[in-house]
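hey
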C-alpha cells in the first residue's frame, strides 16, 4: 500500500511538471562594451508566454555571487523552474530575468579606473538589453536582485540609482561594516577587496573608494525620501556568516525610516538556501510590478 501511494505521488509530480508551461533560458549571450573594453556575457529567462505574445514585460536583473558567473542562477539556483511554477500558479506576473556576468568586480567601478563595471551596466548594458527584448522601460517595471556579492551589488545599484528601479531584493547580501572591512584588508580576505576598493593607507585608514561604496555609508548619507522611492526586501539565513552587516542594514533602514521587508530564515550561505527562497524575492518584486 505504501509503495502504491509513493508511486502515485511520483506520477502526480511528474504529470504536474510536464503540464507546467516552460519559459526559455538563453545562455551564451553578450554585449560589446566600449566602457569596460570587454564583452559582457549574460543569460536571459523569457517567460512561457513571451514567444506567443507581442506585449512587453517587466524585467528583473538578477546578480550572481563572488566567483560565479551568468549561468549560476540557472545551473545552481534553478530560478527558471521557480519562475515557471510561480507564473503558472499566478504567484508572480510573467517577467523577463536577465543574469549578467560581473566576474569579481563587486558590480562597481574599481578604484584605479581599470574596470568601470557600474558605468557599463547603466550606460550600455541596460539600454542594449531593453532594446533587444520586449521590456517595459519604466522604473516601476524594473527590479534588481542578487545573492552575496550580487546582493550587495543590487543594494548599491538601487540606493545610488533610485530613479532606475522600483524594487530591490537582496539575498545574503555581502554588506560589511567598516570594522569588518578593515579586518579583511589587514588579515582577512584581502584578495577579494583590495583589487576593487584599494588598500589601507599608511595610517591604517580605509580606502576612500570603499567608503564611497559601502552600502551602510551610502544609506547614512542619503535622503530618506530618495531611498523610499525603491521597495526593499532583505533576506538572510540565521546561520549566514554575513549576519552582522545584514542586521546593521536593517537597523539603519529602520532608523532612517526607510520602508523595507527584512526576513531571517533557517539556513546558511549556500545554494540550498537561495534555491529554496528566491521565490520570496520573485513574489516581492512581482507585487511591485503589479498595478494597484
Amino acid at each position: 500500500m505504501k509503495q502504491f501511494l509513493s508511486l502515485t505521488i511520483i506520477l502526480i509530480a511528474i504529470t504536474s511538471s510536464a503540464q507546467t508551461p516552460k519559459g526559455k533560458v538563453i545562455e551564451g549571450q553578450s554585449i560589446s562594451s566600449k566602457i569596460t573594453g570587454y564583452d559582457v556575457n549574460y543569460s536571459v529567462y523569457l517567460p512561457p508566454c513571451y514567444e506567443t505574445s507581442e506585449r512587453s514585460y517587466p524585467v528583473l536583473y538578477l546578480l550572481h555571487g563572488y566567483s560565479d558567473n551568468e549561468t549560476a542562477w540557472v545551473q545552481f539556483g534553478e530560478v527558471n523552474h521557480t519562475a515557471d511554477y510561480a507564473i503558472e500558479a499566478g504567484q508572480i506576473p510573467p517577467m523577463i530575468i536577465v543574469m549578467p556576468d560581473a566576474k569579481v568586480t563587486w558590480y562597481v567601478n574599481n578604484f584605479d579606473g581599470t574596470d568601470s563595471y557600474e558605468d557599463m551596466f547603466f550606460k550600455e548594458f541596460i539600454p542594449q538589453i531593453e532594446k533587444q527584448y520586449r521590456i517595459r522601460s519604466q522604473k516601476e517595471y524594473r527590479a534588481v536582485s542578487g545573492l552575496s556579492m550580487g546582493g550587495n551589488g543590487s543594494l548599491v545599484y538601487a540606493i545610488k540609482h533610485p530613479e532606475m528601479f522600483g524594487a530591490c531584493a537582496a539575498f545574503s547580501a555581502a554588506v560589511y561594516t567598516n570594522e569588518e572591512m578593515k579586518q579583511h584588508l589587514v588579515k582577512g580576505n584581502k584578495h577579494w577587496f583590495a583589487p576593487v576598493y584599494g588598500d589601507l593607507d599608511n595610517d591604517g585608514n580605509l580606502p576612500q573608494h570603499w567608503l564611497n561604496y559601502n552600502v551602510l555609508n551610502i544609506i547614512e548619507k542619503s535622503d530618506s525620501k530618495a531611498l523610499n522611492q525603491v521597495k526593499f526586501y532583505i533576506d538572510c539565513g540565521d546561520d549566514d556568516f554575513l549576519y552582522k552587516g545584514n542586521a546593521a542594514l536593517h537597523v539603519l533602514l529602520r532608523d532612517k525610516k526607510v520602508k523595507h521587508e527584512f526576513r531571517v530564515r533557517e539556513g546558511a550561505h549556500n545554494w540550498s538556501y537561495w534555491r529554496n527562497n528566491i521565490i520570496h524575492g520573485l513574489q516581492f518584486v512581482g507585487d511591485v510590478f503589479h498595478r494597484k
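Residues 271-289 form the longest helix (19 residues). Residues 240 and 269 are 5 Å apart (CA to CA).
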